[in-house]
Fold this protein.
Amino acid sequence: MRWLRSLFVVSSLAACTSPLACTSSSVEPAPASPDGGAAPAADDGGAAAIDPVCEAQAVAIQKGIDRERKEQKLQHAAVAVATARCKSRVFRSDDPKSEDAVSDDSLWRMGSVTKTFVSAAILNLAAAGKLGLDDTLDAYVPSFPNASGITVRQLLNHTSGVFNYTESDDFAAALTAEPKRKYTPAELLAFATSESPKFEPGADWYYSNTNYVLLGLVAEKAAGGSIGEIVREHAIDKAGLTRTFFDGEEPLGGALTPGYQAKTDVTNLYDPSVAWAAGAMVATPGDLLAWVTTLYGTDEVLSPASKKELFTFVPKGSYGLGVTRLPASVTLGNGPGVGHGGSIFGYQTQAFWFDEAKVGLVSVVSDTGGDPNALSVVVLEALAE
């Protein structure tokens, strides 16, 4: 079951364009389009609807994501994009034959984009003096092997060397045998510690979901609460989000867009505890758009000092403290991008911010085999026309 191994991975944008700017206003649900999609929602009292540039972009984006949804044989796909001229807009494409009740208020699993929320919470705890980025793990999870040699910073930027539990054959077998089983963080860590570390802490870069399970425990120890409560206080609420939730830690305020794997509905096949702080969160595309524009484009969530830490990238992985960087050389004139991708059972997500262009972009598809990158390219090409 090869796809089990790729849970919560980073996904990166292949091509981007557009010298436009962005805001993070709220987005209202949009009516369905004749092709099964959704007309774009505007947040500026209707001004975007009569702007010919915005209107042309909307037509191109809707046609493009309808085309991609059909070609990829997806049930559902959505993008959310924010620019200064056209504000925040959500576009959706749904298979007309689908009986799923999906709207712009529907939630989507975000996989590893969860890491951006956990990282923000850790950085805010550090700013409040609750923990130090260079504290060693033994102060929080003393039972973990080599805890005295691993720092919080190394967990955040994936230089700890700790084995990735989602690459474990035992983990894949356990999910197959008991898909509904609820796991404790300690049980997830056991899948990692049964394998040898990839390298000594700080010696290299290696993406490991285990790092963020450990960070969940670090946050709970430092703040004295549950990771769901901590992320809500130090990340979600700071960004003013109302449609973002930590599945398994708090009730979901809405229905999930169904996610598929080989035409099988896997929306709730596995307990969210299998991902926990590495990838269990859910949100609407509009809320994720507000998150990337606020987290990366303002100082509302993190202070300038904390953002400086956030954007300290490891050269090999182009990875900071819970954020990946796209070089300008691959964004077709859009400038460097920052954000994260996510892959989890039934869903693929991209959530990026392009600071030079001041563009926020989120792309989501409801299929493990889907390609949100193709949707992202559709949007940014439409913005560049």
